[in-house]
TrEMBL record, chains A, B:
Residues 353-380 form a coiled coil. This is SLIT-ROBO Rho GTPase activating protein 3. Residues 8-308 form the F-BAR domain. InterPro entries: AH/BAR_dom_sf (IPR027267), F_BAR_dom (IPR031160), FCH_dom (IPR001060), SLIT-ROBO_RhoGAP (IPR051627). It comes from Salmo trutta (Brown trout). The chain crosses the membrane at residues 519-542. Keywords: Coiled coil, Membrane, Transmembrane, Transmembrane helix. It holds the Pfam family FCH. Residues 201-220, 464-489 are annotated as: Disordered. It comes from the Eukaryota. The gene is SRGAP3.
Amino acid sequence: HLSHTNFTKYSLTKLLIRNQLVEQFKCLEQQSESRIQLLQDLQDFFRRKAEIQLEYSRSLEKLAERFSNKIRSSREHHQFKKDQHLLSSVNCWYLVLNQTRRESRDHATLNDIYTNNVIVRLAQISEDVIRLFKKSKDIGIQMHEELVKVTNELYTVMKTYHMYHTESISAESKLKDAEKQEEKQFSKSADLNVHLLRHEDRPQRRSSVRKIEKMKEKRQAKYSENKLKCTKARNDYLLNLAATNAVVAKYYIHDVSDMIDCCDLGYHASLARTFRTYLSAEYNLETSRHEGLDIMENAVDNLDSRSDKHKIMDMHNQVFCPPMRFEYLPHMGDEVCQVSAQQPVQTELLMRYHQLQSRLATLKIENEEVRKTLDATMQTMQDMLTVEDFDVSDAFQHSRSTESIKSVASETYMSKLNVAKRRANQQETEVFYFTKFKEFLNGSNLIIKLQAKHDLLKQTLGEGERAECGTTRPPTLPPKPQKMRKPRPRSIYNHKLFNGNMETFIKVPTHESVNMDSIVFMVNHFLVTLLVSVIHALLSLLP
Amino acid sequence: HLSHTNFTKYSLTKLLIRNQLVEQFKCLEQQSESRIQLLQDLQDFFRRKAEIQLEYSRSLEKLAERFSNKIRSSREHHQFKKDQHLLSSVNCWYLVLNQTRRESRDHATLNDIYTNNVIVRLAQISEDVIRLFKKSKDIGIQMHEELVKVTNELYTVMKTYHMYHTESISAESKLKDAEKQEEKQFSKSADLNVHLLRHEDRPQRRSSVRKIEKMKEKRQAKYSENKLKCTKARNDYLLNLAATNAVVAKYYIHDVSDMIDCCDLGYHASLARTFRTYLSAEYNLETSRHEGLDIMENAVDNLDSRSDKHKIMDMHNQVFCPPMRFEYLPHMGDEVCQVSAQQPVQTELLMRYHQLQSRLATLKIENEEVRKTLDATMQTMQDMLTVEDFDVSDAFQHSRSTESIKSVASETYMSKLNVAKRRANQQETEVFYFTKFKEFLNGSNLIIKLQAKHDLLKQTLGEGERAECGTTRPPTLPPKPQKMRKPRPRSIYNHKLFNGNMETFIKVPTHESVNMDSIVFMVNHFLVTLLVSVIHALLSLLP
């Protein structure tokens, strides 16, 4: 029999193992169920997210379509809007719509990828998890059967050993009994030998001794046999014990881990590929967005009031083309076509010339002052108008609080108070600018008129003086009149209409050597424009 | 009087100018109206886009919330799910939800920026356009009045010149008349002088001559006066003509452009700032998205089945903790606790030992073959499982056709046919792998048992030999038994449970010098685990 303690020890270990095996399966099953649940959640999630992408995509598409249609019909109905897209500001608006369409398309693509790729993958992984769990459990059952087998074997060999040892003990005690009897017999016969020589009861005693010896021999044989059996059984037990412990250790160190690996087979890799598909889609959406935004940003960088102004003037060429100069229309038969500076008007003209000269000097100084103020005011306005108040990155800070979305309108540059203050300031400056501009305009108009008269007088008087001198030296023409109005230094004012050709044109009638081709071209151009305008003017005169 | 041609010329030029001025205003007005329309469209657009952002944001928020709630309640109800987030796969899922929440917040921010910043700016620009158009028109009116004024003045001085020239011509003809009369008188008196000297009618004739001379003088004076007047008028006309042409030229070259500039004042700059606000918002949204995706990508890179397996085993420590070794339980009084290799079992044991040795050699070779097949199969599976099939950038190509969204599921790697083929292939390999794995498991279980027995026998027989020799030389222990099962080369199998501590632990009872601290720690750890398991086992035995 096994001792009670030994039995308990063995059984407890075996029970513990069996219990763990059951729990291990439970654990694997739980894990697989968790995974299936996770995969189901992911599928549900992406199904709904795909829907959201589609809704978003459709909303954006509708939005872009609405305004594109509006632009299309407006172009059809208003001739003058046909070339609007050439204007940099309108171009930005069209690009905003393009970007919206691009976003719409990209989010539709996202929907497609979620639905036809990500979700399909997730469903497959789910199948894999179920299938692999079953197969791994099969493997596990095989492993567990092995454990049960070896522990049962161990139990068997242990029982055998204990049985043989019990028998061995009993054989030993029987042998010992026999040995004691033999000893007793021996001491008895030694006593008798001393007292009784040649007795008639000797054969009887001899047969008794032989009997005892025989028994002892028998018991000795039995004992040896049992002892050998027991030794073999113990050896078997010890060898099986080592084997069992080795198998159990292997199971816990390697096999159980291998079983989990079987369960996991490809799970992480497939899941990673699914997430990478999702990431690839999202990153690509982002790249596409970014490309669109860059195009947009480029268009914003190219917002240019000067170029837009020139485009508008080009579009309305007839309206902004300078008219023909007023010609000198002499009275019938009057052959004089120049200012005459002979006496008696010479003195008066000279006086007038000097008056004009001093008047102009004063006016120019005054107007230059106005111009400086105007430029400074414009600079102030430009600073207000180009203030870099458009960075909204603060609104996208996630780090601190995840809950509260910072309102962009509060606290910042765009707060109502700030905006109102800025606008009031801006409009005040604007009013001042316009006042000064009118003043400058009046001044410069006066100056240009006086300057024209002054220059003509100067030229005339120079010729007159020459005429009076009557010498043969080449005429020293008075210096060509300076253009009164210097272009203002700010580039915004420093433009030239029609690429400056107009100034060339204006100069033609008054001056000497000009490229004939360009004159012919300009005159032709001007004439065509003029004729169209004349027809226009005449038509408007009809009742 | 002006000649008809001259009058027409002057009037046409003046009419052309007036007509152009009207058209210029119309053009400016049209342009301003276009701008107001554009700004209105932009406001409408961004208002609707803001709504779409909010809808999108809310949908995403609801989606994330739905699954977050599910996770929360699942954690509360299932104890074992509490630490699930430690698993790399579950972590990815949580990050997908985080990213969704982040997107939701960012799109809500976009809504806020559109509504409270972009639209506000657009409305302000609209106001500016209206106000500046009015002010610019005022300036324009002033400019036009100046043009009308100078052209009217020119007309007046031209008329004056023509009038004086007419008068000058008439005075000249009258003077010529008088000169003719004087000449006639002169020739008559010369005739008389020849025929009549000292005549009585001389005084009468002298008075007639004096009368003619007086008239001539008067007419001469009148003519000179008129000629001077005419010269002055012509000079005035020529000077005014120059001034007028200068003013007109200035208007067409500079003033009209300045007027447009006044209209444009700040329009492009403000529009640019508005678009830049939009761009800043969009770029920041993108940056935020990107940050989130990078976190996500990092988590996907860290998807790790090995670490997850260890975490699961740690979480279920009791279930995976190796049990106590089966102890040798000797029968009462049996003091032998080792395999005995004395005669008569020695021969048999030796024979058994040699049999085991040759059996093991064969088995190991066989099982090594199985292992090689297994590894190759695993490699094939790994290649299938880690194929890089997740790039969906093709779906986001906008360049070619803007209309057709390429379906990701068609043609590509994810096509149904391809997927089915791949999966069939994968599962076939899987089946083969499991068959081989079972084979390998059987083989290695057998080997480990035989090896344990073999090692024990080897040790015993070695000791037995030593004991028989009875020499004093130090015992030459048989070489320590090699671990039968070599760790497989694939790192996925090359793990150690509990950071390999278990193996150390397993070795403790059989071997010599081990750090006592670590033994104490391990034993404590093991005992605690064991006691818990025992209690568990005992509880499960209760009726």
